[in-house]
Amino acid sequence: MAKPSDEQQRALAGLLGLGNHSARKSHYPELAARLDELETERNRYKWLFENAVHGIFQASLLEGMRAANPALARMLGYQNPQEVLFTLTDLAGTLFVGGAQELESIGEILQRERSLLGYETQLRRKDGSVLDVLMNLLLKPDQEGLVEGFVADITERKLAQQRLQQLNDELEQRVTARTNELLDAAEALRDARDAAEAANRSKDKYLAAASHDLLQPLNAARLLISTLRERKLPDVEQVLVERTHQALEGAEDLLTDLLDISRLDQAAVKPDIALYRLDELFAPLVSEFQSVAAAAGLNLRVHMGDYALHTDLRLMTRILRNFLSNACRYTDEGCILLGARRRGDALRIEVWDTGRGIPADRLDSIFLEFNQLDVGRAADRKGVGLGLAIVERIAKILDYRIQVHSRPGRGSMFSIEVPISHEIPLPISQAAPQPSTGNPLPGRRLLVLDNEVSILESMSALLGQWGCEVVIATDEATALVALQGQAPELILADYHLDHGVVGCEVVRHLREHFSLAIPAVIITADRTDQCRRSLQRLDAPLLNKPVKPGKLRAVLTQLLA
Q: How many angstroms separate the CA atoms of 406 and 412, rounded?
């Protein structure tokens, strides 16, 4: 630093009160050092001002720009900082995009708040382009209207924000588009599901209607074949009749199983849970399968205790009938056991056989539709493979557990667990059986009601062969004419007659007409719960089409005995 001139030293000395020689002599070294420090500080701030990365300026609210650093000049597109020393008018018209209104607003804030920090605005560059900047402005307290400002270029940040916003907008658009696609897909799936359900309902209705229409002629054919089976025919004709009987029986089993599967799949079966004694469940099954087992050369044994169950008697009978039927079909010799044993709060009902058994790796597949084990030729088929599939569906409806244990070559055991009851109802009537008076059917006068003439003729032939006097009619009016004022001893009525009339109504009207509780049997291919409830109110047994002659004869014998 250059040494101050004599004139400068005298002036400074006078300013500091160092007028005499002795004072100057004693304080000059300290003063010189202080001046060096001030000069160094001034140079440092000058260097920072000129080399700062961000723009720095000093301006007056009344006059305009007073000083600017090179960084601000470069930021605005100028070579020399002197070029950006705009007047107040130039600031409003050239530099600030917001113009005079924005400058006035900035001035009001500075006068009120003394500072303006983080202020984002736009400045116009020399080439006319717009620059996004962030400003911190300070109003100097000791100099009226003097403002110091610091300026940062935030164009890249703004561009990044705009790009991010654009990406967000595009993402939202893609999400919206994808959401709409998913909604359209979901709607399409719902439409497809509704169409599939409608098609399934249509299929079920068609299957039920078609099966009903098929069961009508099949019922007539079964009755006629049964009539022929009971006649003495030459051996050749007898063989043909038996083969026809077996073929019709197979067709009947298939249609019956298809109807049951259809109703179970469309959840049309609702369980009717009530309290039953175990012997109420077992007795009809034993009566039915004693002869079946005997015909196959097997011994049917029964073991049951004094138990009561909470169950649906009809559905449980269907399950056990399937177990017993399979045991009879697939056991060549030995015996079949129907038994029950208590397991906690459940009763496990079991069907054992001494048949061929099932390999362990095939146990799961036996419950699949149309699946039969070890059947290589069509001639070896017994049934159609739907029985256990029906059993599994019924067990799910009742929420019962089915178990299978089998040893190939030794036999199998099928079981189902049923809730047990601690309350045991009174047993079925224990009245002593009446002495047998022989066959009660010959000479008995029966009324047969059906809207199918072929069934009327077939039923008339079968009952006539059993010795009955048969009166046939297609509706209530023709029945009254045919009866000629004399009540029948029993009525066999089809459930569905013509013009929406049901056989239950005709039976009630005939009972009222003759003032007699005439025994009745309803024969139908309708397996709905509505039909069964109607029969419960009528107090009449039900026989499903195609009618099994043996079962028909047993029911008639019981009602007429």
A: 4
Tokens encoding 330: 């697939």
Q: 514, 491 in Cβ contact below 8 A?
A: no
Return d(Cα 390, Cα 259) in angstroms, integer.
10
CA atoms within 13 A on the CB side of 435: 1
Q: Tally Cβ neighbours within 10 Å of residue 293.
A: 19
Mean residue pLDDT of the chain comes to 80
Do 294 and 314 contact (CB within 8 A), yes or no? no
401: left (phi over 0), alpha (psi -120 to 50) or beta: beta
Q: What is the pLDDT of residues 481-509, one digit of tens each?
A: 999 999 999 999 988 888 888 888 999 99
Number of other residues whose CB lies within 10 A of the CB of residue 541: 15
Would you kindly state where each structural domain of the chain is located, as residue ranges? 1-51, 270-421, 445-560
So what's the architecture of 270-421 in CATH? Answer: 2-Layer Sandwich (3.30)
| Residue labelled with tokens 């077996």 | 246
Location of structure tokens 């089915």: 402
Q: For 326-365, b where at least 16 C-beta lie within 10 A, e where not — what string?
A: bbbebbeeeebbbbbeeeeebbbbbbbbbbbbbeeeeeee
| Spatial separation of the C-alpha atoms in residues 422 and 34, rounded to whole Å | 113
Q: Which fold has domain 445-560?
A: Rossmann fold (3.40.50)
pLDDT in tens, 148-207: 999 999 988 888 888 999 999 999 999 999 999 999 888 888 888 888 777 766 766 666
Q: How long, in residues, is the chain? A: 561
Residues with Cβ within 8 Å of residue 403, at least 6 apart in sequence:
413, 414, 415, 416, 417
Render pLDDT for 511-521 as a digit per residue (tens, 0 to 9). Answer: 999 999 899 99
pLDDT single digits (tens) 379-392: 344 554 567 777 88
Residue 152: CB atoms within 10 Å: 16
Identify whether the C-beta of residue 407 lies closer than 8 Å to the C-beta of residue 357: yes
Give 344's Cβ-side CA count (13 Å radius): 4
The Cα–Cα gap between 508 and 516 comes to 10
Q: At what angle do helices 453-465 and 155-229 cross, to 10 degrees?
A: 40
Structure tokens belonging to residue 195: 């169409």
Indicate the SS3 state at residue 124: strand
